[in-house]
Amino acid sequence: MDRILIRGGNKLSGRIHISGAKNAALTLMPCALLTDEPLTLRNLPRLADVDSFGHLLNQLGVSTQIEGARPEDFGRVMTMRAARVTSTMAPYDIVRKMRASILVLGPLLARMGEATVSLPGGCAIGTRPIDLHLKALEAFGAEIEITHGYVKVKAPNGRLPGGRVRFPVVSVGATENALMAAALAKGTCVIENAAREPEIVDLCRCLVAMGARIDGIGTETLTIEGRDRLHGATYAVMPDRIEAGSYACAAAITGGSVDLVGADYDEMGATFDALREAGVTVTHEHGVVRVSATGPLAPLTLSTAPYPGFATDMQAQFMAMLCKAEGASMLTETIFENRYMHVPELARMGADITVTGRSALVRGVPVLTGAPVMATDLRASMSLIIAGLAAEGETQVQRVYHLDRGYERLEEKLAAVGADIERDSDG
Ligand code: UD1
Hints:
The N and C termini lie close together (6 Å). The protein is an alpha/beta fold. It is globular and about 65 Å long. It contains 14 helices and 24 strands. Helices cover 30% and strands 26% of the residues. The structure holds uridine-diphosphate-N-acetylglucosamine (UD1). The site of uridine-diphosphate-N-acetylglucosamine has 22 residues, from helix 5 and helix 6.
């Protein structure tokens, strides 16, 4: 199994190209199911999760074609075509490995009038139920049955009539499924307390490019007037704000300065506010965000929240960075109940972190030391990379497949800005 080896201590300096967003890609790809015409996605990141999602679509009868990507390029162009949907079922084996598979539920229901998807079960960061996804589909007129670990949804007479749902809590995934299901409904669907994440806006824009009618994009109330059919489109995936934020934390912990090329400054307000509060300078000009850390890092008090709040997907990376702050930080995780799996691993590197319930007290330490570590999820793995970049000696990060799910050519990007990092394929 691959591992990543880092010898810490180098200040990062230079330019990092920001890839297309994983979380946007995985909600744009299932849109291909909504039309018999081709959907072409540009700026699709080269990630294991994107490949897995492509395989799931293939199983449903969707053809996928990747165009002319040279190995040295970042990103790819993929054309997907669901001329005929041959299966409406996402099996346990696939959903278990990739939670985002649940996002075929809405589009399959919309296009085919039915879908059967394995219940995803728990994952490393919490229970992650799908009751809100089902609440929305039911409100739009679907009949729902749960048996043998699968959820089966059906539209009466093959098409959802429409309706109104109000989510009790903000859910990104449920908003995505609801939007895709609503796009082909007979009537109008209204989603209240919808997620406002930039990835939701990206999904709305892609659906609109395919002919959908959506009002309120970027607000908490989305009104979708169902269409009889959608058409093909070409759409570019938004830049990955979590990847950009991760490299910003990496630059900050090393006292370095990096230019994040292609990052969308406007979508990263909470991340950049927090970095500035920690004493990091953030500027932007012509599609490039410069993150520079010169002095010591100041401690922070942060609480994760739905967008535009501080993202749960940035919590682990900030925690790693704050291990080197001068003073004690308090991080509170409000989205997931079990998202501190990186804490014991950071402790192996000399971090001083106490978790009480949903909060973590991070006391800054003068020195982190390299160690063999492993992580259980994507962002947790990134936090170990960040700590490793500032640690004395060698850090070996095991279970690199977590990183490959969500960071395009991580070691190459970091090495290009001066990190001493390599992948060991025999580890
Ligand atoms: C969440 C994050 C998203 C992040 C992703 C991967 C939020 C609001 N969402 O999206 O930013 O990119 O994880 O780390 O920050 N919930 C239910 N029932 C449901 C669906 C969700 O109770 O049917 C709860 C979840 O347990 C969680 C909260 O709602 O506490 C938000 O979950 P949701 O946004 O749906 O999760 P993801 O779509 O995975």
